[in-house]
Each structure stands twice: as structure tokens, then as C-alpha cells.
Specification:
The complex is a heterodimer of chains A (261) and B (209). Chain A has helices at residues 4-8, 16-20, 36-58, 65-86, 94-109, 125-146, 148-156, 166-210, 221-257. By secondary structure, chain A is mainly α. Chain A has one domain (4-257). Chain B is mainly alpha-helical and 209 residues long. Chain B has a domain at 129-208. The N and C termini of chain B lie far apart (156 Å). The chains are: A mainly alpha (261), B mainly alpha (209). Chains A and B meet through helix 2, helix 3, helix 4, helix 5 and helix 6 of A and helix 2 of B. Chain A: It comes from uncultured Acidimicrobiales bacterium.
């Protein structure tokens, strides 16, 4: 009943591990075991680089196609994210933020690519690494711009409060800045993509199950319409989650760079 | 819910815990991407965009400068045209004035010349008249004496008769233009030749008057 192809194309509703865990097809049994998720990461890297390399080589006065996409996104990240969230001194982070936006977006959008249908960020590995990386980055930026003491003082002891309140505020600030931030970053991305993935699989499998020559087939349009609608919704989510993690990273970096704001 | 708890407890195959191989590949891929983006891909796009911005700014600056130059040239040109118009008007006015002056000069000079000519003519005619009168006077006197001598038959004292005649002529002369005619009637017995000769000389005097 279940062929490998129907598994690869997510036509069957498999056990929960099977919809997110993919067998390795290279270096199996080693820590470098290479599976569909790892291939998705490579794809996201290559696609982002290709987009920018091609755009950088064209250099037409009036941009079109790929060049237009790359330049519009550079402009968007520059004006919509860096200038808004970081402000002065934010330009050095532009390549990092751009790379992160596209890496997350391409990993997410694989969720709706026919035949692939697996978002890399529905696995905890990448959201966790990004959350930790962003946390390390904004701590390093804060220490470098304000000094270790200055950064800790500014982030743990917000000015203008009665001294007694610091017994309450400082632990809360510590937890919110150094623990909740990375945790919320990773869980937000991971949970959104996993939930979307499960939703799409649910309606796809439901529609497939109703593709039968009996009276139950009259219900087929319902899950199919849901599937079509959710696919569009997930395209939006893929973009939105990439945007959210990028702008949050910028906000955290900006806060570490300019504590006065 | 029970299933989720079971899943979370399952260990290495737990779907919500990160897998080591995916952490390694993902981190590697992302770091490679960040490095290549920072060093290579992003700067090339950014520099292309900056170059375009610069190009457009230069083009706009050029256009602004060209326009202001054109404006200057236009103002200059308009000023030159206005100057030329003013100059032309001035030249025409000057020419008109010169012509006016010339005309007035010429008229004045012509009038002066005409007046002078008239004056000279009058003088000449006056002098001629005087001369003719004097001549006539002499001839009349001589004729009168001759006539008187013939009539009287005797000789009058030449000196005395000349004096008489002179007085008479002078009396006639003071009576103006009519004198010769008067003389003619008064000397009714006198030869008509005298009268006609005096009248012949008269029209010049009449024209003169």
C-alpha cells in the first residue's frame, strides 16, 4: 500500500516521526548523516547566494527580474528593518540579516514546494541555532558597545525605578533578556512551521483518502479547498516568520547598541 | 496530549528535539552563507545600488547645472536683445535728430541766403536806381537848359539855370514815384521825350517799391 514515492511526496499520513524525520541517504550512522533536511539547508544557502551573485553581476541601470528581487529585498531590509530597528550603526549587520532572512525564507517555502513539502524549520535544529546565534550576537554587540559592566547594568537594572523594585525587576529582566528571548525566537519559528506542515499534511492526506470510488467522495472538495487555502496561507507564514525573526534580531541588536532607546 | 508526552520522552527520535546531524549541516550551511554574503554577494549588489544612486544623483546635478547655465545664457541673451533694441532706438532717434538739425540748418541757411540775396538785390537795385536817377537828373537838366535856351533865345546864366533845375528836380524827387509823372504834367510845354524817358525809368523804381 505505501510505496517510497508516496512517502516522499507526503501522500500518506505517516506516524508523527515520519512526517518530520527523514532517513539519511549519505554518511548514515555518523553525526554528518545527510538527509532531506540537510539538503534543504544547502538549497537555501545556494539559492540565496545565487540570487545575490546573479543580481550583483547584472548591474543594469533599470533592474529587472532577479536583480530587482535582490535589490528590492536589500532596500527593504535596509530601510524597513535596519533603519527602523537598529538605526545608526546598523549597516554592518545588513549582510547577516539579509542572509538570515533568505535562509529562513527558503527553508520555510520548501513547505509548499510540490514534491518536497518539508520546511527545514519544522525541525528544531535550525530555529535553535538561529535563536542562540542571535542571542550571542546581541550580547557581544552590547558588551562591545557599552562594556561588560555597562551592558549588564543597562539590561538588568533599567534606570528610573525605586531601588527596592530591582529585587523584583532584575530577575525578570535577566530571564526575559537572556532566556526567554532565544527560547521565544526558536519556538516561534519552529512551532509555526511545524504546525503549518502538520496542517497541510492533514488536509492532503484527508483529500487523498477521499479520492475513492464511493459516495464518500462528495466530501473531497472540503479538505481540498482547505488545502489550497492553507497553502496560500503557509506561503504568507513562510515570509512572515522570516521577517519576524529578522526584525527581532535587529531589534535586539539595536537595543544592545543603543541602550538609551 | 498523552501522545505528545510520550513523544517528548522518546529520546533521540523525539520530533521536537534537535537532531545532531541537522544542527551540524544547518549551522555549517548558514555560516557559509553568512560569510559569503558578507564578503561577496551582498557587497556586489549593494555597490551596484550605490553606483546607481550616485549615477542618478550625478545626472540630476548635471541637469540642474545645465538648466541654470541655460537660464544664465537666456538672461544674457535677453539682456543683449534688450540692449540691441535700446541701441537701435537710440540710433534711430539720433538719426532723426541729426536729420532734423540738418533740415533746420539747411532751411535757416537757405533762408539766410535768400534774405541776403534779396538784400543784395535790393541794394543793387537801389544803387542802380540812384545811378539812373542821377544820370537822368543830369540829362534832364541839360535838356531843360538847352530847351530853355531855345525858347528864350537868349542865354540864361548857365549857373543860375542849373540851380533852378536842380531845385525843381529835388522838389519832384521828394514827391516820390509820382514825381516824374507830375514833372511831366507840370512841364506841359516841355518835350514829351523827357516825360516818356522819366516814365521809362520809373517802372524799375515802382517794382522796387
Amino acid at each position: 500500500m505505501t510505496s517510497p514515492l508516496s512517502f516522499l511526496l507526503a501522500l500518506e499520513f505517516p506516524p508523527i516521526e515520519n512526517i518530520v524525520e527523514w532517513p539519511a541517504f549519505l554518511f548514515e550512522g555518523t553525526p554528518f548523516a545527510f538527509n532531506k533536511i540537510a539538503l534543504g539547508y544547502i538549497f537555501a544557502t545556494v539559492a540565496t547566494l545565487a540570487l545575490f551573485m546573479i543580481a550583483g553581476r547584472r548591474r543594469a541601470l533599470v533592474p529587472r527580474g532577479v536583480q530587482n528581487v535582490a535589490e528590492a529585498s536589500v532596500d527593504f531590509i535596509q530601510k524597513g528593518i535596519i533603519e527602523q530597528a537598529i538605526g545608526h550603526g546598523g549597516n554592518p549587520f545588513a549582510p547577516f540579516l539579509t542572509a538570515m532572512f533568505f535562509f529562513v525564507f527558503f527553508n520555510n517555502i520548501l513547505e509548499v514546494v510540490p514534491g518536497w513539502q518539508m520546511p527545514g524549520n519544522a525541525r528544531m535544529a535550525m530555529p535553535m541555532m538561529l535563536g542562540l546565534l542571535i542571542t550571542v550576537l546581541f550580547i557581544v554587540v552590547g558588551v562591545r558597545s557599552q562594556g561588560l559592566g555597562g551592558y549588564l547594568k543597562n539590561s538588568l537594572f533599567p534606570p528610573g525605578l525605586p531601588k527596592a523594585l530591582y529585587f523584583l525587576v532584575t530577575p525578570i529582566e535577566f530571564i526575559s533578556t537572556f532566556l526567554v528571548r532565544p527560547f521565544s525566537l526558536m519556538v516561534r519559528l519552529f512551532a509555526n512551521m511545524l504546525a503549518g506542515h502538520i496542517l497541510l499534511i492533514t488536509f492532503a492526506v484527508l483529500a487523498a483518502a477521499l479520492w475513492v470510488a464511493s459516495w464518500q467522495a462528495i466530501f473531497l472538495p472540503l479538505p481540498f479547498v482547505m488545502l489550497v487555502g492553507l497553502t496560500g496561507f503557509e506561503i504568507m507564514v513562510a515570509f512572515l516568520q522570516a521577517y519576524i525573526i529578522t526584525i527581532l534580531a535587529a531589534v535586539f541588536i539595536g537595543g544592545a547598541l543603543h541602550p538609551e532607546h | 496530549m498523552h501522545n505528545l508526552v510520550l513523544l517528548a520522552a522518546e529520546g533521540p527520535n523525539n520530533p521536537i528535539l534537535p537532531a545532531t546531524n541537522e544542527i551540524i549541516w544547518g549551522t555549517l550551511a548558514f555560516l557559509v552563507l553568512v560569510v559569503l554574503m558578507s564578503k561577496l554577494a551582498y557587497p556586489s549588489v549593494k555597490s551596484a545600488m550605490d553606483a546607481r544612486t550616485e549615477h542618478i544623483r550625478t545626472a540630476i546635478d548635471d541637469a540642474d547645472r545645465t538648466r541654470s547655465e541655460a537660464q544664465t545664457v537666456l538672461v544674457d541673451y535677453q539682456r543683449q536683445v534688450a540692449d540691441a533694441k535700446g541701441e537701435a532706438a537710440r540710433i534711430i532717434e539720433e538719426a532723426r535728430q541729426t536729420a532734423d538739425n540738418l533740415r533746420r540748418d539747411l532751411t535757416a541757411r537757405a533762408e539766410a541766403e535768400a534774405a541776403e540775396l534779396r538784400q543784395r538785390n535790393a541794394e543793387q537795385i537801389g544803387a542802380e536806381r540812384q545811378r539812373v536817377l542821377a544820370e537822368l537828373q543830369g540829362q534832364v537838366a541839360t535838356l531843360a537848359i538847352e530847351l530853355a535856351e531855345k525858347v528864350v533865345g537868349g542865354s540864361l546864366d548857365q549857373q543860375r539855370s542849373l540851380q533852378l533845375i536842380e531845385d525843381y528836380i529835388n522838389t519832384v524827387g521828394t514827391n516820390g514815384a509820382a514825381a516824374p509823372a507830375g514833372a511831366g504834367t507840370e512841364t506841359a510845354g516841355a518835350p514829351g521825350s523827357t516825360s516818356s524817358r522819366a516814365a521809362g525809368a520809373d517802372p524799375t523804381g515802382g517794382a522796387q517799391a
